[in-house]
Amino acid sequence: MTQYQPSPVAIVTGASRGFGRAVTVALLDRGWAVVGDARRASELKTIAAELDSSQLIALPGDVTDASHRDALVTAAIKVGPLRLLVNNASRLGPSPQPALVDYPESELWAVYQTNVFAPLALIQAALPALTANGGVIINLSSDAAVEPYPGWGGYGSSKAALDQLSAVLATEISAAPTVPVYAFDPGDMRTEMHQAAFPGEDISDRADPEAVVPALLRLLDARPPAGRYRAADLALSGVRP
User: Fold this and answer.
1) Which helix (H) or strand (E) holds 229?
2) pLDDT (tens digit, 9 = 90+) per residue, 116-175?
3) 45 in catalytic set
4) Model confidence pTM above 0.85
5) What is residue 90's three-state secondary structure?
């Protein structure tokens, strides 16, 4: 008799729109179960209805809330083996983005809470299950993490901190090499957040999020050494295990 094998489980934060939604759809298509969250409960409810999949567990909430992070991990473990954490949820900050000399302290704190502290806390909560199941951690980065664009000091510095956090984590958990940590830079995309970064501008030349997902899936499949990877480079080089 064939033994039942539960689907691999992923946690995807910010799953209701943009890149998070595209990643969620792609994973479901591959037979994964996805525990997805979003701050906008109505949007998350809409995507759940549209996809109509029993493999999608939609949990509205804010990743900066410790009880919500615990709920995400608990839900994932109940469904099956947790093998992927995608820290996609991000906060841009004020729109238009202010120069650092004018950046409100409270706004900068909120950006770091979402883009740095919450991903680390969720990794801490999920790591035991990811280690047990040979999982992968992918933190969404940005070219603003490595390029000093005027007006991107808040968001960019938070993503730079996330890059360094990812690199240090990868070194610290090297005793468990079954859990590689990747910082993934998707490049510019046609998303609501990117539009907010360029209010009033035409961003129709940016890539659709769905077009970038294959690069993330290539990273997931190939599992190269831990590090920072650009979607454009993955598409060109085709990483290998």
Assistant:
1) strand 227-230
2) 999 999 999 999 999 999 999 999 999 999 999 998 899 999 999 999 999 999 999 865
3) no
4) yes
5) coil
